[in-house]
Design brief:
The protein has 409 residues and is α/β, with parallel strands linked by helices. The protein contains 16 helices and 13 strands. A seven-stranded mixed β-sheet has the order 3-9-8-7-6-4-5, with helices on both faces. Bound molecules: 4'-deoxy-4'-aminopyridoxal-5'-phosphate. 4'-deoxy-4'-aminopyridoxal-5'-phosphate binds next to helix 6.
């Protein structure tokens, strides 16, 4: 038989393209780099302070989540050093097996007390808390209801769950009620950010709670940006509204006010016990290292003992909110130390960030899909340790560049 005439069986199978094809066609970042507009993965050569060193040059940092300025605090650093001396640098295993130290347990007790909940569970990152908790709680026939602007880790936690994901318009209580009504007969978890990480606005927690109760849902608040910042004693969004006893679960991260890396979930004994034995990102991932655990513990002490830091943070926040608004910038609904300056299109935002960098100001940029199209913004955020002089320099730089870009008159 003339083999040349018979189609090769292997040829009959449609040849797939290279899985790496998308990588070879990914030009967006390189284009920004070639235009000198790339604002990501910038290398910092100093601590995360109000002033940083980048490319050998001092700059004012207004792109950090180090709200209370504790990442370089002597007591926090000392606690980390002491923990390394005693326990070494890592735990070489998960909390579930060999990776639980006495300081993990002590931190859980401290966090539970601090958050005024029965129990808490520490994880290695905040991202892992949301992945693990949401996927553990939301089963096949359940619904998870989220705000459209919730953090990516919440969305990914929902995707990992076997339940149905329903979103409602940002902070729109009518829309939340519509979604809850449509799912009246199902078991529901509502997950909201306490402070939204790009917009800097606060969730209307009393309304969310009222609706959650009316439709028999359970409520989880991701308070990554609320803890240390909001509330009379820095306990976050629930304390701000006087609803600590009412929110079912509060999630926190150590990567903002708590000056380290890791995260936790706090709630009732039974629910935390269940999560402890079901959250895969806890069970199958190594526990937070001793230095992180000790830093968080020291940071909580400082939050409790030095309320003046939070007061200074709010003083700085008010100065910047007023400053930007009186210059004519649009700052959306922000009412926290996260202050977005809304620029419009993505390219303008990249340009503005680089112009600010030239002026010696480090900012972050948020473009689509992190924000709605046409709502690209410069995300600024403040620390208790910024001085008036830092903030005046920042406002002058924004004024100069805002005028040049036609954002303000
Ligand atoms: N939730 C929110 C609202 C966040 O902003 C972040 C961090 N950017 C996370 C969760 C994840 O926390 P971590 O950095 O500890 O992974």
């Amino acid at each position: 038989m003339d083999s040349g005439m018979v189609p090769d069986a292997r040829m009959a199978v449609k040849r797939s393209a290279d899985i790496f094809g998308k990588c070879f066609k990914f030009h967006k970042a390189k284009m920004l780099m070639s235009q000198g507009l790339y604002p990501y993965f910038r290398t910092i050569e100093s601590a995360q302070d109000p002033e940083i060193v980048m490319n050998g040059r001092r700059m004012i940092m207004i792109g950090s989540n180090n709200y209370l300025g504790l990442t370089n605090h002597p007591k926090v650093k000392e606690a980390a050093i002491e923990a390394i001396k005693k326990y070494g640098t890592g735990c070489a295993g998960s909390r579930f097996l060999n990776g639980t130290l006495d300081i993990h347990v002590a931190l859980e007790e401290k966090l539970a007390r601090f958050m005024r909940k029965d129990a808490a569970l520490v994880f290695s990152t905040g991202f892992q808390v949301n992945l693990g908790v949401i996927s553990a709680l939301v089963g096949k026939d359940d619904v998870v209801v989220i705000d459209k602007m919730d953090h990516a880790s919440i969305i990914d936690g929902c995707r990992l769950s076997f339940g149905e994901i329903r979103k409602y318009r940002h902070n729109d209580m009518g829309d939340l009620e519509r979604v809850l009504k449509e799912n009246e007969d199902r078991d529901k978890l509502i997950v909201v950010d306490g402070v939204f990480s790009m917009e800097g606005d606060i969730v209307p927690l009393p309304d969310v709670l009222r609706l959650s109760r009316r439709y028999s849902g359970r409520l989880m608040v991701d308070d990554a940006h609320g803890i240390g910042v909001l509330g009379k004693t820095g306990r976050g969004t629930a304390e701000h509204f006087g609803l600590e006893a009412d929110v079912d679960l509060i999630m926190g991260t150590y990567s903002k006010s708590l000056a380290s890396i890791g995260g936790f979930i706090a709630g009732s004994e039974d629910v935390i016990h269940y999560i402890k034995h079901s959250a895969r990102s806890l069970i199958f991932s190594a526990s937070p290292p001793p230095a992180s655990v000790a830093s968080v513990s020291a940071a909580i002490d400082i939050i409790e003992n030095e309320p003046e830091r939070r007061e200074q943070l709010w003083k700085n926040t008010r100065k910047m909110l007023n400053g930007f608004r009186s210059l004519g910038f649009k700052t959306g609904a922000s009412e926290t130390p996260i202050i977005p300056v809304i620029v419009g299109d993505d390219e303008k935002a990249f340009t503005m960030a680089m112009m600010l960098q030239k002026e010696g100001v480090f900012v972050n940029v948020a473009v689509t899909p992190a924000v709605p199209t046409g709502m690209a913004l410069i995300r600024t955020s403040y620390m208790a340790t910024h001085t008036d002089e830092h903030l005046d320099i920042v406002l002058s730089a924004f004024e100069k560049i805002g005028k040049r870009l036609g954002l303000i008159a």
